[in-house]
Design goal:
five-stranded antiparallel β-sheet, about 120 residues, about 30% strand, single chain, Beta-Lactamase, globular
């Protein structure tokens, strides 16, 4: 696995989308693969929470008939957690502060998820 290429993608998202503070790629079971986080953020905790969030949202989308889940966003008073499905076996998380440009994140994250998926499957 090309960890350097994954790191480039995470760093690119953080540096190019205003308000993104931390990024993580994890297996769908919540085990972190690589992270670009602040010292006070624990990648294992974020990965586990994101996996649970994605699992519940994925099941809801399937039961309701919305098709395959692509992403979920948690809105909080102090920021955001966006979780992206990267195939069925992994996920990507972007944490953002109150200044997050959510529209830009949603726009810029799709190609990043596609590139991350290619890196993980090669």
């Amino acid at each position: 696995m090309d960890y350097d290429a994954l790191a480039v993608e995470l760093r690119w998202l953080r540096e190019n989308v205003t308000g993104v503070t931390d990024t993580v790629i994890a297996a769908s079971d919540g085990i972190p693969i690589i992270a670009d986080v602040a010292k006070n953020v624990e990648p294992a905790h974020i990965s586990a929470l994101a996996a649970a969030d994605l699992g519940i949202a994925r099941q809801a989308a399937e039961v309701i008939g919305l098709g395959a889940l692509t992403q979920t966003v948690v809105f909080g008073t102090e920021g955001y957690m966006a979780v992206y499905a990267v195939g069925r076996m992994s996920l990507m998380v972007a944490l953002g502060d109150k200044g997050l440009n959510l529209g830009r994140l949603l726009h810029e994250s799709r190609p990043v998820v596609e590139r991350v998926s290619s890196i993980l499957t090669s």
